[in-house]
Each structure stands twice: as C-alpha cells, then as structure tokens.
Design brief:
This protein is of the alpha+beta class. Helix content is about 50%, strand content about 10%. It is built from twelve helices and seven strands. A hairpin with a 2-residue loop joins strand 4 (about 30) and strand 5. Helix 2 runs parallel beside helix 3 (about 80-90) and helix 10 (about 265-280) crosses helix 11. The longest helix is centred in the last third of the chain and has 26 residues, at about 295-320.
Amino acid sequence: MVVLNIYGKIKPICISKKLGLYISNLPKEKDNDWNHILYQEIILAKKRIDHDSKKYNLKKLFELEKFYLEICSSKQVENNSDSKMIQEIVDNMICIYLDYNYDDMPLGGWKTNCFDGRLCEDEYAEKIINFICNINEDGKVPYCIYSSNNDFHNPYRFLNYTSKIDQYINSLKLWGKTIDKFLVSKNDYLQLDYLINSFFKDNDYNEYHFLKLYSLCQLFLEKEKEYELDKKLIKFLDDKYSENLKEIIPKKLRKMRNKIAHGDFIEFEKLVEDFASEIMDGNFLFDYSEYSRKNWVILHICCELEEVVRKMVNMLLLDRDKLEKIKNNVS
C-alpha cells in the first residue's frame, strides 16, 4: 500500500489505463483494511511526536486540531476526541495502487509481469510515483508519505501534505495519459520498467551514479559510436554554459566515463581536476569542509546529468519522434 500526501474524499480514479494505476481513499475491507492500519500508525506517530516535543523541550509539533481542520475543513473540533479526529483524517487519506488483468499487458502473467507486487520487491506503485516526481518539472505532483514496503520510522511524514488536491490529481492524470500514449509495444513496457527502476532509490552522487547517468544518455542518443554524444549532448546542456563550454563538456564526460570503465583511475583523477579547473573554478564555490575537490566535481557532474536525463525522458514520453531524430543523426 502506498499513501500520497494529498487528502480528501474521492471515488476511485484511473490514472493510467495501460498500467492499471488508480488512486482512491484507503480500503476498509475485511481482508484489506489499510484504513485501520494507517489509523494505528498515526496514533503511534502522535505519541512519538508528543514524546519528542517533551524530550527536547520543543513547542508542540503536532497540533492535531489544526491538522484536523485543514484536512477536514467542514468539521468541528469541539467534543471530538483525538481518536475520532485521527479516524476522520485517515478516512480522507488517498492511496495509489495497481489493479489490472494480465490480458491487458503484453508481459505475461504472475511469473513474468514486472509490475506485480512481490514480497521481496519494492512496491511498484511507489516506484511509479517516484518516477513521475523525478521527471516532473513544476513540482505539482503528489509524493509518497507511506509505503507498506518501506518502514520509514518517521511520524512527521504524515504532516507533509498539500491541500491542492484537484491540481495534483489532474497533474497525475495528465502523466497517466502521457504514459499510456507511450506504451504501444512490449518493448515500451520493458523500457518504462527499466527507466522507473533507474530513478528509484539512487541518491549517491559518486562515480557509479555518474556511469549510470552517462549510460542513460547513451541509451537515448547513441546510434553507432559513443563519440556521437560529443555533439548530441550539447542541445541538452543548461544554457548557463557558453557555446564553447557546451562543445567541451560532452567530450570530457566521455573521456571520464571511459577511464572509469577501463579501470584507469589515475587518468580519471587527472580528468576530474581538468574538469574542475576549466569548467568550475571561478564559477563554483568549493567548500572543502563538506566534500573533497574530487567529490565536488563528481557531485556537480551528476546533478548536471540528472537534469539532462530528465529532459531526455520527457522528450521520450512527450515527443518520441524528436528524440529518435536526434539519435539517428550520426553525421
């Protein structure tokens, strides 16, 4: 079960027909009572928040009455117990889940369908919402505050919500339609699965992250030879770079990638310093109490490539033909 940071009374809404992706209020059935499970979680969360407030001599962090009125604006606080208010909040919680027939997907059944939920795999609805959050550029999509596959041990997550429910649901539905338009063949489903997993749970800005991001650029742009990216990457780089630097950066990234891939870490160190002195010095504040010079460079490159990949994924989903033209231009 995956719960989003939006609250309200809704009927089940289809987000993506081809994925069988829906949102609704929490189920409250005999064999599927997530409503009661989340009720108990918030009871425990309130106790922990109250404990933390007293322990650290803080002001009360969880103003239940205020939270209740913001979530359930038509209600009154008077004569309502904590348990009653929390139950009403839970009744307004919204979850996202997958519900489809195997015949609706070209991926086979239980044995082979990669979108199924399994005990030792992450909840796929959580991975999808994480993917949409990562590629969305305006921030107007909900995110996960609770997943049954991940014990966050953080009661404050329940308080991180948005009241712009219609705006955020409409944004989700728009992304669902975009994904449905993209999913034409079996390969499209498998490629989407690959991309969703590529974005999930990877926040370490190190050499491996750099390699993964560069390989995604190759996936989108490389037709025959890796040096094609020397030119093709230019149009995806941020406009803060001069035209001269846009010509230089892709070549440096390719050389850095190759030195890592071939285990030549001495030359990789030299290329890192070369990148720092030519691209970053004078334009970037190095704080060596936070990171070493090398790690600042790798972090910076990863952040830049994440934005590049985000642009490519958006182009893939919104204008696949345009991305294919860029890829096929090998001159």
